[in-house]
Specification:
The chain folds into two domains: 38 residues; 152 residues, no CATH class. It is α+β, with helices and mostly antiparallel strands. The strands form three sheets. It has a two-stranded antiparallel sheet.
Length: 200
């Protein structure tokens, strides 16, 4: 019996649907993996100008003044159930600090836990760390996202001679724009807290 065009069309439609379902599941799995990676231990990326962690915890009253003052709404509270619950952190995987001109968060802190940085590069939030094995540019694709969004001059993320992004740690304020915008899954660039700030 001869196959009708309708049967052939139905076959291709089913095949395309199966392929699309497989691709969608692959993307969902990658997104879950990325969420798991960033929602695991909480990095203590304190707002710009935070004093040393021990001193910060003594001074911070968890008043939310810095959260309220932040024009980018990038500051969130450490969730309940942790020793420093209620204190402010930045989650660049969700929303990065924009290094606003007047550092409104630090200016709003009356307790001295945040002190206004003199320059954007002195924000001291953390330092970007790049994983070449996860980076699109390092693995053969064309991507310049982290270099393009880096807000400091000279750039803290720049290209090497082979057009691979590299981090100049001494210039990195830790704002997290590179992490927020990284198109790789899981993200190839992440902000690490300054020495002495916990990840738990």
């Amino acid at each position: 019996m001869a196959e009708t065009p309708l049967d052939r069309r139905a076959f291709f439609r089913r095949s395309a649907r199966t392929l699309l379902d497989a691709v969608a599941e692959s993307v969902r799995t990658a997104c879950r993996a990325d969420r798991g990676r960033t929602d695991g231990p909480l990095r203590r990326l304190r707002p710009p100008g935070a004093v040393a962690e021990e001193d910060f915890l003594r001074r911070c009253t968890a008043c939310d003044d810095c959260l309220t003052a932040c024009p980018a709404a990038c500051i969130v509270r450490v969730p309940p159930g942790r020793p420093d619950a209620g204190t402010p952190v930045i989650r660049p995987d969700r929303r990065a600090c924009v290094l606003c001109a007047d550092f409104a968060c630090a200016a709003a802190c009356g307790a001295g836990a945040l002190q206004t940085p003199t320059t954007p590069a002195a924000a001291g939030i953390g330092t970007a760390r790049l994983e070449p094995a996860l980076c699109l540019s390092w693995t053969g694709a064309t991507c310049d996202t982290c270099v393009a969004v880096c807000p400091v001059e000279p750039k803290a993320v720049e290209f090497d001679l082979e057009r691979h992004p590299v981090v100049a740690a001494d210039r990195c304020p830790g704002c997290g724009l590179c992490e927020e915008r990284c198109p790789a899954l899981p993200r190839a660039i992440r902000i690490e807290p300054p020495f002495g700030r916990p990840v738990a």
